[in-house]
Design a protein that fits this description.
Blueprint: E1 8-10, E2 13-15, E3 19-21, H1 37-48, E4 53-60, E5 72-73, H2 79-91, E6 96-102, E7 117-118, E8 132-133, H3 136-155, E9 160-165, H4 170-175, H5 190-208, E10 214-219, H6 230-242, E11 247-251, H7 276-285, E12 289-292, H8 299-308, E13 313-316, H9 318-322, H10 326-331
Parallel strand pairs: 3-4, 3-13, 4-5, 4-6, 6-9, 7-8, 9-10, 10-11, 11-12, 12-13
Antiparallel strand pairs: 1-2
Helix pairs in contact: 1-2, 3-5, 5-6
Length: about 350
Amino acid sequence: MKTLFDQTKLSGMKMKNRFVRSATYDGRADALGHVTKKLIDHYEELAKGGVGTIITGLTNVTDIEKIVPGQMAIYNDSFIPEYRRLTDTVHQQDVNIIVQLVCNGAQNSSKNDGVLWAPSVIEDEPTVSGATEMTKEDIQFMKDAFVGGAIRAKKAGFDGVQLHVAHGYLLSRFLTPYYNRRTDEYGGNTENRARVVVEICRSIREAVGPDYPVLAKINCSDFMDQGFTFEECKHICKMLKEEGLSAVEISGGTALSRANEGVIRNVTAETESYFEKYAAEIAENIDITVISVGGHRDINKLTDIVNQTKIQCISLCRPFIREPELINRWASGDTTPAKCISCTKCFGVETQCIFNK
């Protein structure tokens, strides 16, 4: 019988258990995305809590886009020694750390200077104003920026990189028919809408070598009208596997998702692990490491998931905000469910549980 505390591997990366801290906005970088002591202390606390692998908060690969206050960045080589201090700190706890690479795109209410890139400008889009439709030159710049970010991440000691292709951020919007209305080779059918993600994945794999973990977080569905579908998700996961992707983390939803079908949902004993069935189908049909995220709370149910499906790893977000030491608690024998009540009042200037203030 498999346990969540089994040692396992992802590409060449050893994992001391199957638990992953899913990428979570932290709000602890400085105004330009640089590392602070507060950021390092935050990840050290997570690492001491028992999780086997940490995926950082979204980390922008350019200095052209608007950066959310407190968001991490990795757009030039000055970040390399700073992140080396971060990765060294986490590695001292026998924990892996993967950096999540992102372009925010038009899903950004920051008042900072910078562009709001979009695959297409949509006049009736209720969540965005002032977006700029990307030219082919912009797309090439973005692709190069993702590759540059991955190269810097490897030099800085990160154990891998994850592409953020979910939740309505820029790469996610390229996949979504509602957001992507282009008529060139980056719009139209599924293959064209996926082209930029496939090209980035291919170029990163060529840049970092065959064994370095390259992951993607992707929506199983947008759960919205004219949205990205699960059939498309499965097809694109196969395409990315062929380009050398090491693992997929299956999430879902955007800002326009139907009520309680978005990224962050209410969680009850009956509704937890809400993306698990999609992750399980992908794990069954594609030879790639699959990580399940979304509303996980009960260790007994999570143990069933890894035994009854081919899902290899479990990632959590909000439970670690409430309890950074959750995995140590479970390992000690206290297997009561995570204390997170899914109120989502933790997301502010700095991500912090209201019960921990």
